[in-house]
Amino acid sequence: MVAMHYVGLDVHAKRSSLCILDSCGKTVKQLEVKGNWPVLLERVAAEVPRPFAVCFEASCGYGYLHEKLSAMARAVSVAHPGQLRLIFKSKKKNDRVDAGKLAKILYLDTVPAVHVPSVDVRAWRGLIECRRRLMDRRVAVKNQARALLRSLGIMALAAKTLWSKKGLAWLEAQTLSEADSLRRDLLVQELSELNQKIKRVEKELAQRADTHPGVTLLRTIPGVGIRTAEAFVAYVDNVQRFSRNKKVASYLGLVPCQDSSAGKDRLGHITKDGPGTVRKMLCEAAWQGIRHSPSLKSFFDRVMGADPDRKKIALVATARHLATVMAAMLRSGEVWQEQTVVEKKIEKDGCAGGDSASPLRKTPMP
User: Fold this and answer.
1) Which helix (H) or strand (E) holds 48?
2) Which of 63, 102, 114, 274 allows an S-S link to 8, with CB 3.0 to 4.6 Å?
3) What are the pLDDT digits (tens) for 310-343?
4) Percentage of the residues of the chain whose pLDDT score is greater than 70
5) Taking a C-beta distance cutoff of 8 angstroms, is the pair 289, 318 a contact?
6) Are the CB atoms for 285 and 322 separated by under 8 Å?
7) Mean pLDDT across 276-301
């Protein structure tokens, strides 16, 4: 039987380090590779004995490296950078040392691995992030235009009216100085360009979302639109990779930090791990769900407890609850349906009354 070798890669754009361990965990070879990723892949193919397993940290372009290395290695592990820092806290840190550490945790089978989505899913996520950046930039441009008017003592129109065709015509018709006119014209031009770019991205996203059954399923939830549903599906990818639905909320950073010691359990702010785009959209969807869903409104009120200071806490808790429900729907294929108060109480103890509602109907999507 041929012995397995374990390879740790500390990858950078123009310089990378490589460490090879044998089947006993002893260092066989350490290399410094100068060049881009194709050069690194050539050196791996030429220098590393077969068969081998390889481990590297998740960073920009990790999907490309995973695909290329999978064609050569028996196993490819992509390590979570944040969790690696918790494992290896050292005051001596360089590329060569990091490559050796990656090889060691691979040999010990203790890699904090991350999920590597397919090429299509990565492209889908990229479009979602591209839209988010364009939306953020559009908000910034609108704020700059309002700040310009305010600095000149001009009362701007209402929010929705100002950005309509009539409102933009009013903005362009304002008599300003030469310098202020230039600033206004550049902002209006940039706003028009951003609107066109957002439409192009949303058109491509709509083509992907309309053909995905998971997005259609999640849109049955009150307050969840196509943008929230597609972001959740794209980042969760395969819900079966989570052993419990509550772990989806943890993946999205919607669970509190915990400090438990000597019988005392302290909970802090949410961890904010995972994709911030999905977390933001879930909070926005939670606001809409509270307005349109009696069960979500009941959950929100129960957490807030008639205390206005707990409104933000209740909103985040509702977003977390929404994430677990969405994961359950993807897992089971059941659509959302509000149940009346009486129905819920009858299910519970066989009599009328009650104060909450079940979000799922046990009818699979056609």
Assistant:
1) none
2) 102
3) 999 999 999 999 999 999 999 999 999 886 433 4
4) 92
5) yes
6) yes
7) 95
Which token pair is 21?
Answer: 């361990």
From residue 150, how far is each of 35, 147, 154, 157, 190 by CA, in Å? Answer: 52, 5, 6, 11, 20
Mean pLDDT of the chain: 89
Specify the residue for token string 């994709």.
275
Q: Give the residue carrying structure tokens 């290896």.
A: 88
The pair of structure tokens assigned to 319 is 């977003």
Strand extents, DSSP E, the chain: 5-10, 15-21, 27-34, 52-57, 75-79, 256-261, 264-270, 334-336, 360-364
C-alpha distance from residue 93 to each of 98, 100, 142, 315 (Å): 7, 11, 45, 41
DSSP 240: G
Cα torsion 244, 247, 252, 258 to 10°: value is 160
Distances (CA, A) of 91 to 94, 99, 240, 328: 10, 16, 39, 44
Third-level CATH fold of 5-107: Nucleotidyltransferase; domain 5 (3.30.420)
Count the alpha carbons within 13 Å of 65 in the hemisphere toward its beta carbon. 25
Cα gap 354→165, rounded to integer Å: 50
The three state secondary structure string of 220-235 is CCCCCCHHHHHHHHHH
Q: Helix, strand, coil proportions of the chain in percent (round to 5)?
A: 55, 15, 30
Please report, as a single letter, which amino acid is at residue 27.
T
Q: pTM of this prediction? A: 0.86
Q: Is the pLDDT of residue 234 over 90?
A: yes
Q: Which residue in 292, 278, 294, 365 sits closest to 329, CA to CA?
A: 365
User: How far, in Å, CA of 326 to CA of 5, rounded?
Assistant: 42
Is the model more confident about 339 or about 78? 78
d(CA 129, CA 276): 10
